[in-house]
Design a protein that fits this description.
- The protein has about 425 residues and is an alpha+beta fold.
- It folds into two domains: about 170 residues, Beta-Lactamase (2-Layer Sandwich), CATH 3.30.450.40; about 220 residues, 4-Layer Sandwich (Phosphatase 2c, domain 1), CATH 3.60.40.10.
- It is about 40% helix and about 25% strand.
- The strands form three sheets. The protein has a five-stranded antiparallel beta sheet with strand order 2-1-5-4-3, sandwiched between helices. A five-stranded antiparallel beta sheet has the order 6-15-14-11-12. A five-stranded antiparallel beta sheet has the order 7-8-9-10-13, covered by helices on one side.
- Strand 1 and strand 2 form a beta hairpin.
- The radius of gyration is 33 Å and the shape is elongated.
Length: about 425
Amino acid sequence: MSQGKPGRLETLYRVSQALGSTLDLDVILNAVIDQVVGVTRAERGFLMLGDASPSLDFRVARGIDQKTIEAPEFEVSRGVIERVAETGKAVMTSDAQSEDWLAERTSVMSLKLRSIMCVPLLVQGRYIGLVYVDNRVQAGIFGTEDLDLLQAVANTAAVSIENARLHRAAIEQARLERELEVARQVQTSLMPLDSPKVPGFELAAIWRAAREVGGDFYDFIHRADGQWGIVIGDVTDKGVPAAFFMALARTTVRASLTGGGSPLAGLEQANRLISADSSSGMFVTLFYAGLDPGSSVLMCIGAGHTPPLHLRASENDVVMLNKGGLPLGIQEEGRFTEARVEMRKGDTLLLYTDGLVDAIDRRDDFYGWDRLKNVLRKSGGQGAAQIVESIERDVNAFTAGTPPFDDLTMVVVKRVE
């Protein structure tokens, strides 16, 4: 094909018009092949996207008859494609059957390929794929002007393809953000709206996900026997998978503890149910504190959770409780033990997830237990809500704007009478 400069400019203008009228990626890819086959008089055209030969994705493959080519990966010269993908430079052969470097390529010989042109799709020098055309009947039908024109068309096409891909990615990102916002709203709705009013005690809590959704949760469960079950849990994962598992765990624990049986039996039942559904390998650490309004003793059960801190007001001393047995979801027949914590007037029990002590500052230092204990001692004379605020304020000052690595949840139980 021999075109002068006006013919080439006219062709590129026509291609630009065809490709610039839409941001639909599939429409653009099909338009590219139709234009390429038309301007080069090729028998067949193929368009592949990807950054390397093994990962190239055949997106469009069509003949001059406008029919889709089936199994296109077996219809082209892999040698030509690999060279363009590796070098980022155009390749043309007038007769592939007589090219020494293609002589041992099975695809060339078995397909009886003759004239081939293959050019890279480049966006600001960055390789995003390639365009391949060939003719299995005639040798020598492509010349250097054809190759130059094909590369010019490919350059125009590459910009349109990249814009369409960015547009599609932006739409997908917006959709994901909307879905995550809905998921966050649903997850937030699973947390108690308010802390219960329990005679002789104050309760306060905070829940903060490191991402849009998280794996931490807490709950206040009013049991059939009149006691309050205070629960904090932490799924051993982050993001959306942890959020799904958190919803399962929270619902299962609440249902298992609401009835009239003992909290110990309820947690063992919850563990069996969670273990049966935990095919993903995730599990949840948990701590339960049973609060009887008529008693000063909390009945506590740990399931591998970060050890709560007990501030004894009379001594201004902080004691770390035992984290208990295995997390829920590891062993179906797991067993747990009860421990009793006496809460005297002014005492505080702090339940929290490891996102608190594992918070890091700009030097990658951990917030840690020592700092947490000091803040708890200093704020122990305040109300439950103020203690939560004091700890949160200190953590924020420590991290100083460092993005949170993990979810952070706290529940404070303070005896005031």
